Amino acid sequence: MLPSTASRPATAHTGQTKVPGLFVGMLRVFEHNLISYRRMWLTLASGVFEPLMYLLGMGYGMGSIIGDLSFRGDVVTYAAFIGPGLMASSAMNGTLFDTTYNFFFKLRESRQYDGMLVTPLTIGGLVGGELSWAVARGAIYSAFFVLTLIGLDLAEPLHALSAWPATLLTGWAFGAVGATLTSYARAWTDFDIMELIVQPMFLASTAFFPLTVFPEWAQSIVWATPLFHAVDLTRALALGTAGWSDLVHVAYLVVMGLVFGVLARRRLSRLLLE
Amino acid sequence: MTLVTARTGDPVVKAHNLVKLYGEHRAVDGIDFDIQPGETFAMLGPNGAGKSSTMKMISTVSPVTSGELRVLGLDPAADGRRIRARLGVVPQEDILDMALTVRENITVYARYFGLSRTEARHRADELLQFVQLADRADDQVRPLSGGMKRRLSIARSMVNNPELILLDEPTTGLDPQARHLLWERLYQLKRQGVTLLLTTHYMDEAEQLADRLVIMDRGRIVTEGTPRSLIETKCSRDVVELRFGEPALGTDDPDDGAARAETAAAHLRLRSERLPDRVLVYADDGDRALAGLAEHDVSAASTLIRRATLEDVFLTLTGRTLVE
Predict the structure, then answer these.
(1) SS3 for A65?
(2) B192/B294 Cα distance (integer angstroms)
(3) Which helix (H) or strand (E) holds B132?
(4) A7 vs B188: CB contact, 8 Å cut-off?
(5) Cα–Cα distance between A204 and A212 in angstroms, integer?
(6) Cβ contact, residue pair B130, A5, below 8 Å
(7) C-alpha dist (Å) from residue A2 to A97, B130, B132
(8) Do the Cβ atoms of B280 and B312 come closer than 8 Å?
């Protein structure tokens, strides 16, 4: 004998008349992540504290030995110099972590994306939503940075705030690259290769020292890396020395985000809708 | 309950000369079938028969290579989103979100279908009752048993009140108790007029649930019909199973026994099939066949007379067993 509750629930809903579109799909993916991370706030917190430790340790510790530096003609303390650089780097790391390790897990291990795509969600909504979430995560890290820069008097409040959007752009551009590269990854060990690229790029990105430290031939190599543009743009804004020439940085990151965003969408379409 | 297709009487799924290629591999090689509203339709076949590929095309996550496919009267290539809004899909492996609770696994997916938060929560509670997981609503997913996870997958697939539910090997890997509970739930859905499409390589599952089925092999449909009609037309009523044990030293090779059984069956004008571990003799009267074989000096280590199953149909049609 079946319990009375065993009948098929028959409450109708309104979802069948209006199928959610692309933007709503992105929002739902974002919401999905938000709910998943509610219990993982510690993971988020670690991303805030790590770069702050760098800032305190290197900015004040090493800064006391190094003294002041010159950036675009202005003399600034070492902590004020590396602060914005670390802020840009943490925005990059925040989105990269989501679009590489987390992305790979959902794509290959849990195959969660396969489950999400048998709903009205489209590939565009999936990629857009995942990237937005990754950018938001990076934005949380950099928002803490903005507050820290202001709190430690390393930047004018308005200047520090103006640097925040730059980190969103940074996060989006790197997130799109991360998602594209992850679509090619076959195993977890493939991410070691990524680390081999990201770590030297981080160290050379001018986050810790000005570009002029490098010999001329090396300067052009550093100039070609995306993190340099992110760091230089963020620093210019945070220190209030931004000018029209910084639009080059913006253009570099926008093109990077657009090209790799389209690539990521195409790659995932091929992988998930075969 | 709204069954749009039931009103129009059009098939829920209609496939004509449907083909799916993966590179050179013809996963689905020109199949025709239709599924009527309210029907439980099964695709039976071994791994690699093309069942899952067909399911993926119907759920619009795999483009059709050639041929025609209509799902709920719509074209998957053009109306994927609208089709998916009205489908429920239970994949072969449970794709549950381990970071979410049991209930959240339903509410989060409900949101993808456009339900409000309140509707989603209400619906989740109803569905968890239905699959008998209400007491686990706030638990994590990971510690659930295989059967519970599969039931949660089914509940999740029903969140949009689907007109058609696709179940890809719904009971593979479950213990008998969990299988029976699942069958009972699916039977409930069937009774309430939901159209079900399921794939399986278990003949008993198809016999239990399916109104109609197709047997697939290597991308093609080998035969179709109701479970009973297939057994009656493609096979015999009874099957006699003869096993020839390990030979004692210095005695006959068991192959001789098997060979003698095959010859005897031929004499009796009965069809037989030789498998690695036994010989099957198809007969409408199993007792008479066994007596006849005994008269021909066939002495097996053990014998069994049983009713023919879909497995026998498959074996008859392809010369291979379903589960290899």
Answers:
(1) helix
(2) 51
(3) none
(4) yes
(5) 12
(6) yes
(7) 49, 11, 11
(8) yes
User: Please, what is the Cα angle at B218 between B217 and B222, to 5 degrees?
Assistant: 35
Contacts of A110 in chain B (CB under 8 A): 95, 97-98
Q: Which chain A positions have a beta carbon within 8 Å of B85's beta carbon?
A: 15-16, 19, 119-120
Of A19, A40, A273, the CB nearest to B82: A19
Tens-place pLDDT, residues A5-34: 444 444 444 444 567 788 899 999 999 999
Q: Is residue B205 part of a domain?
A: yes
Q: Is residue B269 part of a domain?
A: yes
- Identity of the amino acid at A188: W
Chain B residues within an 8 Å CB radius of A36: 97, 99-100
Size of interface A-B (CB pairs under 8 A): 126
| Average pLDDT, integer, range A156-185 | 96
Could you state, in chain order, the average pLDDT of each consecutive group of 10 residues for chain B (324 residues)? 50 96 94 95 90 95 96 95 95 90 96 95 95 94 92 94 94 86 90 92 84 93 90 85 71 71 88 86 90 86 87 82 65
In whole angstroms, give the CA distance from residue B317 to residue B224: 12
Could you give the 3-state DSSP secondary structure of residue B236? coil
Give the span between the Cα atoms of A36 and B141, in whole angstroms.
13
Closest to A7 measured CA to CA, from B2, B127, B118? B127
In a domain, A15, yes or no: no
Q: Give me the pLDDT at residue B237, please.
A: 85
- On whether ipTM exceeds 0.90, the answer is no
Residues B243 and B138 placed together within one structural domain of the fold: no
Is the Cβ pair B129, A5 closer than 8 Å? Answer: yes
Residue B117: give the domain boundaries.
4-232
Burial letters A92-117, b for 16+ CB under 10 A, else e: bbbbbbbbbbbbbebbbebbbbbbbb
Integer Cα distance of A87 and A144 in angstroms: 9
C-alpha distances in angstroms, A141 versus A55, A164, A195?
A: 13, 10, 20
Determine the Cα–Cα distance for residues A211 and A232; give it in Å rounded to an integer: 9
- Suggest the residue from B112, B113, B129, B196 to mutate for an interface test with chain A (most A CBs closer than 10 A): B112
A219 in any annotated domain: yes
Residue with token string 């569905």: B127
Which H or E element spans position A223? helix A216-224
Record: contact A118-B81, CB cut-off 8 A: no
3-state secondary structure at position B28: strand
Q: Which candidate from B85, B112, B123 shows the least CB-CB separation from A11?
A: B123
Residues of chain B contacting A121 with CB distance shorter than 8 Å: 112
Adjacent-strand bridge partners of B302: B243
Q: Report the domain count for chain B.
A: 2
| Cα A129–Cα A133–Cα A134 angle in degrees, nearest 5 | 115
Q: How many domains does chain A have?
A: 1
Q: CA-to-CA distance for B140 and B90, rounded, in angstroms?
A: 20
CA–CA separation, A172 and A262 (whole Å)? 12
Q: Is the model's pTM score more than 0.90?
A: no
Is B271 a domain residue? yes
Q: Between A9, A14, A37, which is nearest B130 by CB?
A: A9
